[in-house]
Design brief:
Layout (H helix, E strand, L loop, with lengths): L18 H10 L4 E5 L1 H10 L23 E5 L7 H10 L5 E5 L1 H5 L20 E3 L6 H17 L18 H4 L1
Parallel strand pairs: 1-2, 2-3, 3-4
């Protein structure tokens, strides 16, 4: 069987892709984080944006403090019950699609603060996409979790929502394994 010649020759700098892949690529490379940082994890979150770690290389340097401009919430540090309604309101004000990273042992499980006033894991109140372990976690771990989240966003299907059928969606991410 002979290989037919293409009808139109494309220049080298032209790529053909689907609309889903293009939109996912745009979303993954333009994450705008909404920081919700308390205590020592907040310091590590600030260090992630500093020049040594430079989160700008991954398209996430635009920390916005307006929920209507953000699509990624990073909850870093302990959250008390009194602040939970505020955190939920901020989450509800963010536009879809939105993602959440739980940074540190306190945000993920309550940490060493096993008291009635500290939330024992924000996943009881918000849907969490990525968990970053540690007390406090290093900036490199947060950067790895952002890379993992970008892989997840790229794998999502924007129009038909087929990403929920993929078994790889349920596998633990590298940020949890290291």
């Amino acid at each position: 069987m002979a290989i037919s010649k293409p009808i139109v020759e494309l220049p080298e700098n032209v790529k053909i892709t689907s609309l889903d892949r293009l939109v996912s690529w745009c979303r993954k490379n333009s994450l705008w984080p909404m920081p919700y940082a308390t205590a020592c994890c907040g310091i590590e979150l600030m260090a992630t944006g500093a020049s040594r770690n430079d989160i700008a290389r991954f398209g996430s340097e635009v920390f916005r403090f307006s929920p209507r401009q953000c699509d990624l919430m990073i909850v870093a540090g302990r959250v008390v019950m009194k602040m939970m309604p505020v955190l939920q309101r901020i989450w509800q004000q963010m536009h879809e699609p939105k993602w959440c990273i739980s940074m540190g042992a306190c945000a993920s499980t309550g940490g060493v603060f096993d008291t009635y006033c500290v939330v024992q894991g924000i996943d009881r109140f918000l849907p969490v996409d990525i968990y970053v372990p540690g007390c406090p976690p290093r900036p490199e771990q947060l950067i790895q979790s952002i890379i993992d989240l970008q892989e997840k966003i790229q794998a999502e299907d924007t129009i038909f929502g087929r990403e929920f059928d993929a078994p790889s969606r349920q596998q633990p991410k590298r940020a949890l394994q290291q």
